Amino acid sequence: MENIIFEFPYLGHEHIALVRLNRPKVLNALSTDLMQELVDCFLMLDKNPAVRVIILTGNERAFAAGADIGQMATASPIDQINDQRFRTWETLKTITKPIIAAVNGFALGGGCELAMSCDLIIAGDDAKFSQPEIKIGTIPGAGGTQRLTRAIGKSKAMMMVLTGDMIDAKTAYEWGLVAKVVPAITLLQETFELAKTISDRAPVAVRLAKEAVNKSFEMTLKDGMDFERRNFYLTFASADQKEGMKAFIEKRNPEYQGN
User: Fold this and answer.
1) Is the pTM of this model over 0.85?
2) Which of 24, 29, 97 is nearest to 67 (CA)?
3) How many angstroms separate the Cα of 176 from the Cα of each of 130, 137, 217, 229?
4) pLDDT, position 162
């Protein structure tokens, strides 16, 4: 893989993987090759039963500064249809393990959309977010009009999409785009601590909880409640549920095996 680096186990933790975007000269611009490598890596980690949490990050300057404009500038509509890039974005939705985006520096355009495709975002205090596509004569194409609106509401999303202006990490937190803002210098360590907490939870329950939360964006409240209840019932087929409740009664820490 030329455009990403991954570490597993990360910092010696047997259940946590780190994936780092690695095109520093172009601020991790999301080329088709990078996106394919990223999806291939995620699919590999998703199939590994030892992996329970994935951290996605960039570098100090940028998480990702959008799509590779040089690749797109002269493209025709048919070129865009035939490009595999958007198919890889769809594949991201199939990853069952929790993915935490650790964002330092710029998360612009496709970079912001990639962060929003993760399950939660932890931002360094120097992070900047935007959907600047309007400034180059186009619009977001990987969720910027949809996920952003669901995250921060119509009015704020409309302002970001129609102006292309950036917001800082504090504003992103206040608007509900990110879960937490931490000092940039400790971003990866604090994200690792959160990943450890999640990795200590029952893997089957984590997977079903992630699935249920994501379905809430696609269903009516009634259908979503039915789906949640189905997943709740399913946890009772797992050995981890029995271990978790037994450990609670016995006043000890549970030992989850992921089954």
Assistant:
1) yes
2) 29
3) 14, 28, 15, 26
4) 98
Q: Which of 110, 143, 144, 244 is catalytic?
A: 110
Question: Strand, helix or coil at 167?
Answer: strand
Choosing from 37, 58, 102, 113, the catalytic residue is 113
Active-site choice (65, 101, 124, 133): 133
> By percentage, how much of the chain surpasses pLDDT 90?
87
List C-alpha distances in Å: 198 to 25, 50, 123, 149, 158.
Answer: 33, 14, 18, 27, 33
Instruction: Return all residues near 14 (Cβ < 8 A) that are at least 6 apart.
Output: 50
Predicted confidence at residue 88, as pLDDT, reads: 83
Q: Which of 17, 64, 67, 195 is catalytic?
A: 67
Residue 224 is among the residues annotated as catalytic for this protein:
no
9 upstream amide cis, omega within 30 of 0: yes
Whether 243 sits among the annotated catalytic residues: the reply is no
133 is catalytic: yes
What integer pLDDT is reported at residue 68 of this predicted model? 67
Domains of the chain (ranges; CATH) run 4-199 (3.90.226.10), 203-249 (1.10.12.10)
| Token representation of residue 55 | 């951290």
Q: What is the pLDDT of residues 61-83, one digit of tens each?
A: 999 987 766 666 677 777 666 66
Q: Is 110 a catalytic residue?
A: yes
